[in-house]
Amino acid sequence: MNSTRKSAFLRLLTATLAIITLPTIAYAQAIYRCEQGGRVNYTDSPCNRPLIQSGNAAPASAASVKQTVVGGGYEKPNGPWQGEAQYQVMNSGLIQGGTHFVVPLSIEISEGGKFVGSSPENNCKLLGIASPGYTPKILNLDVTLSNCAAGDLNQRYQGALVLNTAARTAQLSLHAQKIGIGMALIADVKGTMRR
Fold first, then answer.
1. Where are the domains of the chain?
2. Contact call for residues 155 and 189 (beta carbons, < 8 A)
3. Claim: this prediction has a pTM higher than 0.90
4. Whether residue 61 has pLDDT greater than 90
5. Which residues contact 194 (CB under 8 A, 6 or more apart)?
6. What is the predicted pLDDT for the residue at 58?
7. Separation between Cα atoms, residue 107 and residue 16, nearest integer Å
8. Cα–Cα distance measured from residue 39 to residue 117, given in angstroms and rounded to the nearest whole number
9. Domain 79-194 is found in CATH 1.10.357
10. How far apart are CA 46 and CA 69, in angstroms?
C-alpha cells in the first residue's frame, strides 16, 4: 500500500471511529425524576442544575428539590417514557365504534420489571410486567389495560418495547385478541415513546 492510499485509509478509519463512538457518548446519559412543590418532571440533566438568572432576580432555591435517577438515557429501556399512542379495537376487520383513540400515554418501567402507565384522556390504566427480550434494548411486555372508556380495550395484552438509540425513541406495541362465536376482536396499542 503506497503512502497516499495508507494516509487516505487512516483518515477514513479515524472519521468512521469518531462517528461510531459519538452516539454512545451522546445517548448514555441518565434520566432524572425531579420533584419540587408537588410537581414531577423528568429530565436528562440533574435537578439542581443552576438556572440562568436575569438582572437582580434572586437565585432559585434548590434545597426543596428531590432528585431520583430513574432511567438509563437511551441505552436501557427501563425508566419513564411519554408519547402519543393509538388505541383501537377491530371486529372481523372493522374498527369498533368508539374504540379508536390517539392520546398522550405515560409509562414507567422499573429495573425490577414492573410496568405502569396511564392515558388520562381515555381513562386507560396499564399495569403489568416487562421481561428481558432478545437483546438488551428490547423488553417483552405482559400488560393488562383497565378502566378504559371503551370497554373492549380492557383486557390482557402481549407485546414489546423496542429501543432505537439512534432516533432517541422507543416503539411500544401491544396486541390482544378475543375469538368466539360471532366475534373476532383484535385490540392494539401502538406508540412512539420519548424521554
1. 3-47+60-71, 79-194
2. no
3. no
4. no
5. 81, 82, 83, 168, 169, 170
6. 47
7. 36
8. 18
9. no
10. 9
